[in-house]
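During the reporting period the student researcher (J.K.) took over the structure-prediction task from the postdoctoral fellow and processed the backlog of single-chain submissions. One of the processed entries is reproduced below for the supervisory committee.
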Amino acid sequence: MMDYIRNTRGRMFESNFFEFFSKVHPATPFIFWIPIGLGMIGYALSTGMTTWQQCIPFMPLGFFTWQVLEYFIHKNLFHAFPGPTAHGFHHKYPDDDTRLVMPLPVSIGLALLFGAGLYALGRPDATMPFWTGLLFGYLWYDFTHWSTHHREPMTEWGRRQRAHHMAHHFGDHEKNFGLSHMWMDRVLGTLNSRTADK
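J.K. obtained the following structure tokens:
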């Protein structure tokens, strides 16, 4: 189990400049990305670049594709370098509410990377709604991660999801890699079911 310090914020950088820009208000990704996502899919629909018939399958596909990516990014990237990284810092200071959502430079970089790859396929009728689904899947991840750490769950699903993620932090950090869902952990055998089902 990783060492952690509860109920406090930590300092990530000695430089005041980098320390300031390492913190993210939890509303930031939603204020930034929701207008962009809605604007892009609205533009694609209004210009005939895509259709509602294409949006119906490809937006949910993008949403669930993000959940698969979320699992593998968390398991195979974040936990491959757990020490002095942003994710290692989050495990050390799990109650630091200024670092519960992804910083904009990271999310912008990922959005551009996925967008460029999808653009290269030359099928904007399918890839535009798919990219929008990915984007809203990412926002669901940020919202769920912030919620599990910073607010009391209001539903039974929320309580189970909070228990699922807290078991990752304070039980076995080699289990429960899904942050906005549990299904990938169930499918791939990394579910800490004893704790997650409480």
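The committee noted the following: The mean pLDDT is 88.
J.K. will present the remaining backlog at the next meeting.
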